[in-house]
Amino acid sequence: MAFDTLGQMGFKLAAIQTAPATFDVDWIRRIFLERWIYLAVAGYIGAFFTWMTLLKYAPIGPAFAASHMEIVSVLLLSVWVLGERLSLDQIVGGLLIFIGIVLLGLKKEGGEDEEAV
After folding, report:
1. What is the domain partition of the chain in residue ranges?
2. pTM value?
3. What is the 3-state secondary structure (H, E, C) of 58-110?
4. Cα distance between residue 46 and residue 74, in whole Å
5. By the number of CB atoms within 10 A of the CB, which of 4, 54, 90, 107 ranks highest?
């Protein structure tokens, strides 16, 4: 979650610094010179290796669901760091994601091992 959050925030900050997106050579040059883009790339490289390791040791369902907590963390960091405002839909969506992950975690703890079937 931390690496995904780092990647998403890096992309958001790079987009802010290189705006407007003009899709020309000068804009691409600005992207490669922007330090935040390298934070984003580092975040996604870290997320990739973390995910590959996690797949080796954790059940796929809960691990995949928990990886989506980055949506909530990016949402909250965007409010705190970038001053973005939350809509009611975003608040409800974030809560539903969080509740879903908690329920999946509780089901896995209390349920039988699905692989034994």
Report:
1. 2-116
2. 0.73
3. CCHHHHHHHHCHHHHHHHHHHHHHHCCCCCHHHHHHHHHHHHHHHHHHHHHHH
4. 16
5. 4
